Amino acid sequence: MKHIPVLLQESVEVLLSGRSFSGERKLIVDATFGGGGHSRCLLERGGGKVAVLAIDRDPAAVGRSAVLEQEFASGFRLLPGNFADLDRILDRAEVKTIDGLLLDIGLSSFQLEAGERGFSFQTDGPLDMRMEPDAGPSAAEIVREFSTAELTRIFREFGEEPYAAAIARKIVAERGQRPLLTTRSLALLIEEMVPDYKKSRRHPATRVFQALRICVNDELGALRKVLQSGLERLNPGGRMVVIAYHSLEDRLVKRFFRAAAKGCICPPRVPVCGCDRVSRVKILQLSGLRPRPEEIEQNPRSRSACLRAIERL
Ligand SMILES: C[S@@+](CC[C@H](N)C(=O)[O-])C[C@H]1O[C@@H](n2cnc3c(N)ncnc32)[C@H](O)[C@@H]1O
Fold first, then answer.
1. Domain identity same for 101 and 233
2. Hey, how many other C-beta atoms are within 10 angstroms of the C-beta on 190?
3. HSE on the CB side for 43, CA within 13 Å?
4. Residue 195 sits in which domain range?
5. Do 233 and 206 fall into the same domain?
6. DSSP assignment, residue 4?
7. Cα–Cα distance between 188 and 121 in angstroms, integer?
8. 165-189 pLDDT tens trace
9. 123 belongs to a structural domain
10. Do 193 and 246 sit in the same domain of this protein?
11. Number of domains within the chain
12. What gap in Å lies between CA 140 and CA 126, rounded to an integer?
C-alpha cells in the first residue's frame, strides 16, 4: 500500500520559492503529513536550507514519520495533532512564525484502503471514518442517532446530495429493522434506492460517505481555523499552499484567500479611506491549478485536486 503525493512538484516549487524571514533556514509546516511525500520532497529539494515541522491527527500517519526523523534528524519533526489547533501546536513547539504552510487536505490512500477505518464503500468494514480513532462519534453513531432532519442537513450541506431527504428518511426507517454498522450495509441501502445505479459514473453512496466523513471529523471547521491561524503565523514573503479535493473545501479556500487579498473597500467617491482595510496577501494561483493529464493518468485519485496559493505581504 502506498500514497502517491498529488501536485508534488508544483506545490513544493511554490513553497520553496517564497522569501524566508525567520532565519537561515526556511521553516515550513506540512500540516497534513500522511505518507510524508510532500515533507520528503521539501527536505530533499531544500537541501539543508529547509526545516519541516509536520502535523497529522492520524496515529497511523504519525507512525510513518520515524523514517524521515532518522534521515533528516534536526531538519524534521512531527507533532501529532489536529491542524485546527495550529496555534497551540506551534506555541508548544516554541515556534512564533513560519515561512510556509502546506495543507494537502482530505484522506491518504493508506486511510482509504484500510477497510477497518471505514472510509470507503469499496471495501467492507466498520462504519467508523474517524481520522483520530476514539475522538468523537463515529459515522455509525451518527447514522444510528441523528434525526431525519439532522441527517438531511449533513447530506445536503456536506455532500451536496440532491436526494438528501429521501436517503435520510430511508436510513431512519431501516435502522430500527437492521443495524447499519458497516460501510457495505449503508452503501447497499443507498444502492437499493437507485435500481440502475451501475449505469451512473459515480456510485450513489459517494456524496453520503463524503458528508459523513466531513461531519465526523469536522473537516470544514478545522480548515477554517487553520487558514486563519496559518495566515497570522506566516512571515512576510511566506507562502501558504492548499490542495483541496472537493468543491466545498475549494470554495472555502478561494473565498478566504480573496477576502485576505482584498484591500480598501471604501466607495470610490470617498476621498480618504475610512475602512482601514489593507490587503494582507497576494494570490499566486488565481484560478487554481489542476493536475496535468499525465498525473491524472498515473494517479486517478488526483483528478479532483485543485491547488491554491497565497503569499503574505
Ligand atoms: C491527502 S493526505 C496527505 C498526503 C501527504 N501530502 C503525502 O504526500 O503523503 C491528508 C492527511 O492529512 C491528515 N489530516 C486531515 N485532516 C487533518 C487535520 N484536521 N489535522 C491534522 N491532520 C489532518 C490525514 O490524516 C491524512 O493523513
1. yes
2. 23
3. 23
4. 133-216
5. no
6. P
7. 9
8. 999 999 999 998 988 999 999 999 9
9. no
10. no
11. 2
12. 8
CATH number, domain containing residue 147? 1.10.150.170
User: Longest C-alpha distance within the chain, in Å?
Assistant: 69
Instruction: Identify the residue whose C-alpha is closest to ligand 1 atom 9.
Output: 35
**Cell 524534521, residue located:** 76
Q: Verify that 199 and 224 share a domain, yes or no.
A: no
Q: Whose CA is nearest to atom 3 of ligand 1?
A: 34
Q: Are residues 210 and 229 in the same domain?
A: no
**Which mutation among 29, 32, 45 tests ligand 1's pocket best, with the greatest number of atoms within 8 A of CB?**
32
Q: Which residue has the cell 510532500?
A: 38
Write out the E strands in 253-305. Answer: 281-283
Tell me: do 35 and 13 sit in the same domain: yes
pTM of the model: 0.94
How much distance in Å is there from the Cα of 54 to the middle of ligand 1? 10
**Within a domain: residue 121?**
no
Q: What pLDDT digit, counting tens, does each position of 27-82 carry?
A: 999 999 999 999 999 999 998 899 999 999 999 999 999 999 999 988 999 999 99
Dist. CA 289 → ligand 1 center (Å): 19
